[in-house]
Amino acid sequence: MATPTLSRHRLPGALGEILIDVRAGGRGSPRPAVLVLHGFKGFKDWGMFPVLAGRLAQAGLTTVSLNLSGSGVDDSGEFVFPERFGHNTFSAELADLHAVLQALAAGELGVVPPTGIGLLGHSRGGGVAVLEAAREPRIRALVTWAAISDVERWSGADWPAWRTRGRLDVVNSRTGQVLPLYTDVLDDIERHRAELDIEAAAGRIEVPWLIVHGTEDEAVSADEARLLAAASTRGSTELVTIPGAGHTFGAKHPWAGSTPELDQVMDRTVVWFARHLGG
User: Fold this and answer.
1) Do the domain assignments include residue 163?
2) Can you give the pLDDT at residue 164?
3) Residues 6+ apart with CB under 8 A from 76
4) CA–CA gap between residue 178 and residue 171 (Å, rounded)
5) What are phi and psi of 95, to 5 degrees?
């Protein structure tokens, strides 16, 4: 098996450029591919994601990780585009994800078109992955880590003051940077509520789906994983809860090494995609 190499690519996105890393070996030979999607305040180089991408690539799977155009983050991992972050929406993230999937399927990301495509999303990215997998027939396997089950992450009681002020302040706990969150996301939820119904989308998933969640997740309750699993009508959906694990399964940024919980999640993820994509 050829040693995986890394290439970087850019595509126009809904709010700016989508930054893309592709890890692959034997780029001229068809093989399965996995798209890896970060969550809210996440990015492709956060903590565990490069390690995960490397493991998937070592298993023979072309791995495509990306910074959504509304992430606000550049290739150095810094929030240098706060306005993009502020105007980000779920619909923009779906559009970006679909654009990358299209480019991958067309052989436009430095590898030949894949034999099958898998999708992995963490947290908010997990919810977006469910929405995309429910509508995109080229996706053949799905894994979600600590996924949200509903796009309404803010109390409705806070919306009037948010709209009056025009923004909500979001603090990056790692750097202390205060990021704006404008009302675009509220407008998006109100206008596209049916299209953004993650629980309903879960009921339309037709591909093998691995749902992974830590029992001590401090950001997204494990009840949301149970809700998604209950909404799925397929016998090929599997729910795995990781006892004692938090939202990132112990991973930190900058990367400080793995944990037994994260190792278990990554092992299960690699096996899932290899089994269901033929890697």
Assistant:
1) no
2) 97
3) none
4) 5
5) -65, -45
